[in-house]
Amino acid sequence: MSLAIGRRPFLFGMATAVLLVRGAAEGFAASGPMPRRMSAPGRFLGTSLRFDQLAKDSALRDAVLQDCDMVTPEVDLKWAAIQPARNRFNYRPVDELIAFSTDNRLRVHGHTLLWEQSIPDWARADLAQDEPDWDVVGGYFRAVLGRYSGAVDTWDVINEPIETSHRADGLRANSFLRAFGPDYIPRALREARAAAPRARLLLNEYSFEYGNPVDEARRNAMLRLLGKLRAADIPLDGLGMQAHLDLAKGPLATRALRRFMQNVADLGLDLYVTELDVRERNITLPVAKRDQLVADETKRYLAAVLDQPAVKGITTWGLSDRYSWLIPPRADAVNRGLPYNSDLQPKPMYFVLRDALANLQA
Ligand code: XIL
């Protein structure tokens, strides 16, 4: 299917109309239409998207065009999706997402090149051999980074390289580390820079937000890794903080998080919030209460991160609960941890995001 309706005047008109209708329903139309996009100067708001959902869901498309200026392919750009066999690339869903983004002046964040959970079977078998050939990775990087070098601004080159229970250096003992040793990280970053010289290159990682010993160890391990890469002058431009918040994890460790972000910024690196959402703890509470808890957690988190000038943008991991990847404790329930509910109506989390970004503009 093609998103041939992505003609700018038509879609801009649609987005405005939907905005006014929605605004009236929520009672904020009186203050005039919101800016089409919520970003503040120098900051952007993004969401992850799947091409199949975008293609069939016009309400989702309208919400993306109303609010976002950046999109992250949620699945289509992962290695197993884009190179299902050694000699077969499945570029079409990403091409379509990029066409939609170009038509609508959305930036594209590349997610993700190396991730343990998205290695195609053929490559996993290659990497497990006695003397694996780096060109398994190199060939894939050259193909994908080369194809999208003009369209993708930022890349999660390595996703989730940290696991503090594996090794003293805090690196995850993934297929890449087992194949090439810890050097797989600088190697991948150099390879990425060579294939896409203008792109911003990131590491992307989760669980930096809370006060428990695991999150603390993860912050420390990541800082050590980033420090080493910078000292060795390895091409690297920033860190993506996934920010899958979790109401079961106790209060956010905002002081530790602020210190962590400042330490990353002091290394000369940018920061990006790449996968913001909130996992609920108690889905038996009244809906209004649940939505308030999610919004409050988001507000506390944004207050900490948006103060840090190195934070360039906020991406939520989906816009609507309809497509949340978070599986709630009960099969018939939906986790309400994204800005819009399952009917694409904005929830308190949406207004928290909008207001936090609007305050930056003031
Ligand atoms: C998830 C997607 O949302 C799912 O649809 C997919 O099945 C598995 O991956 N951290 C990441 C993302 O970096 O790529 C993950 O996305 C969520 C956790």
Biggest β-sheet: strands ordered side by side in the sheet: 1-2-3-4-5-6-8-9
Write down the overall geometry. globular
Sketch the major β-sheet.
Answer: 8 strands, parallel, barrel
Strand elements, count = 9
Rg, nearest Å: 20 Å
* SS element count, helices: 13
Percent of residues in helices: 40-55%
User: Average pLDDT value?
Assistant: 89
Low-confidence stretches: 1-35
Terminal CA distance reads 42 Å
Q: What would you say this structure looks like, in words?
A:
- Strands 1-2-3-4-5-6-8-9 form an eight-stranded parallel beta barrel, surrounded by four helices.
- About 45% of the residues lie in helices and about 15% in strands.
- The radius of gyration is 20 Å and the shape is globular.
- It contains 13 helices and nine strands.
- The N terminus is likely disordered.
- The chain starts with 7 loop residues before the first helix and ends with a helix.
- The chain has about 350 residues and is an alpha/beta fold.
- Strand 8, helix 12 and strand 9 form a beta-alpha-beta unit.
- The chain binds (3S,4R)-3-hydroxy-2-oxopiperidin-4-yl beta-D-xylopyranoside.
